[in-house]
Design a protein that fits this description.
This protein is of the alpha/beta class. The protein folds into 3 domains: 113 residues, ATPase, nucleotide binding domain (Nucleotidyltransferase, domain 5), CATH 3.30.420; 58 residues; 135 residues, ATPase, nucleotide binding domain (Nucleotidyltransferase, domain 5, 2-Layer Sandwich). The protein is built from 10 helices and 15 strands. The strands form 4 sheets. A 5-stranded mixed beta sheet has the order 3-2-1-6-10, sandwiched between helices. Strands 13-12-11-14-15 form a 5-stranded mixed beta sheet. The protein has a 3-stranded antiparallel beta sheet with strand order 7-9-8. The chain is globular, with a radius of gyration of 20 Å.
């Protein structure tokens, strides 16, 4: 079972929802729950009303099914939109006394930030080889402290604070890579889209776009001069397939999708530049991923293998990835951990 008597559960907090999930050691879902939260409690990943968030957390955990989650140990995600991440070339051996100084020098060269204001962690790829690189991730102390304090106020015991995008990588299987290939995961949420490059060793690169499901609905509402709620229904009904779509909903969504498609193209080029070849495939997940015709459209638009990632037979979501970390031998060290004093 690892270090904990009870498996820590995963907790994914977004601007408009909270999800919890706990797994057995065989990756089976023991308990889970999802609730919507009011706007204004969290905005762009920042906690604005801690008291209401504590109340919502207690409601979500307490109502988890088929039976409530009993453990207090939790692994939560931090929003990628508020994090700083970069891949650094550091040839110093990880156990060298010069490693930390060499890493900080590389970080400061590309990321002019005051490291004293950040909590940071890193992951080493291909250690001890001529390909050694380091994924460096940092978060403002103010942001991390707000999440940590809120979790503690909810009676929870944080084990790790992970990257939102990094959690998705745990949902991938060995067959997804086929050797040393890379895979992209495009997570289209309500307010932003996260695009991550994954290699067999874990998350290699991540970026986000401030365009997602809500933006599609807003564009539809503006163009057709209807209410947001009506636009949401049309988005779900027609997607981008354009079949029997006399109002042009699909065309509107395709225009709104363009910034995401262009960013994916740039990430593919970065993938080629850094790793020597294009990604093997792209998985699309998130609330907007199931829009009618989206997968087919992206295949044609990008000219690559695209498939739906999160299905009933195969969960691929942030909260599932967090819960998977909970069954690791040591969840504290199984990936990036931005928890203070981790």
């Amino acid at each position: 079972m690892g270090l904990f008597k009870k498996v820590p559960f995963g907790l994914d907090i977004s601007d408009l929802s909270i999800q919890v999930m706990q797994l057995s050691n065989k990756r089976k879902i023991i308990s889970s729950n999802y609730i919507d939260i009011d706007s204004g409690i969290i905005e762009n990943g920042k906690v604005l009303n801690a008291d209401l968030l504590v109340e919502a957390l207690n409601t979500c955990v307490g109502a988890s099914k088929p039976k409530p989650i009993k453990t207090r140990e939790v692994i939560a995600s931090l929003p990628d939109s508020q994090l700083f991440a970069q891949v650094c070339v550091v040839r110093e051996p990880a156990d060298s006394k010069n490693f930390q100084a060499a890493l900080e020098q590389e970080v400061r060269a590309d990321m002019p930030l005051d490291l004293d204001d950040l909590y940071a962690d890193y992951q080493i790829f291909y250690p001890g080889t001529d390909k050694q690189e380091v994924l460096f991730v940092a978060a403002p102390k103010e942001l991390v402290n707000s999440y940590h304090e809120t979790l503690v106020a909810s009676g929870l015991k944080p084990v790790a604070l992970d990257m939102e995008s990094g959690c998705l990588g745990r949902c991938l299987l060995e067959d997804d890579f086929g050797g040393d290939n890379s895979v992209l995961i495009v997570d289209i949420g309500a307010r932003n889209t996260i695009i991550g490059i994954f290699i067999p060793e874990g998350l290699y690169f991540s970026t986000d776009v401030t365009v997602a499901g809500n933006e599609f609905s807003r564009k539809i509402a503006d163009k057709l001069k209807i209410k947001f709620g009506q636009a949401e229904k049309l988005k779900i009904k027609f997607g981008v397939a354009e079949k029997n779509d006399r109002q042009g909903v699909g065309k509107i969504i395709k225009e709104a999708l363009e910034p995401i498609a262009k960013e994916i193209e740039e990430v593919i080029e970065y993938n080629k530049y850094k790793l020597g070849k294009a990604p093997k495939k792209i998985f699309v997940v998130g609330g907007a991923s199931a829009m009618t015709g989206l997968i087919e459209y992206l295949k044609e638009r990008l000219g690559v293998d695209v498939s739906l990632g999160d299905t009933k037979k195969r969960p691929m979501s942030t909260v599932y990835g967090l819960a998977l970390r909970g069954i690791a031998k040591d969840p504290r060290t199984d990936g990036i951990n931005l928890l203070p004093n981790a």
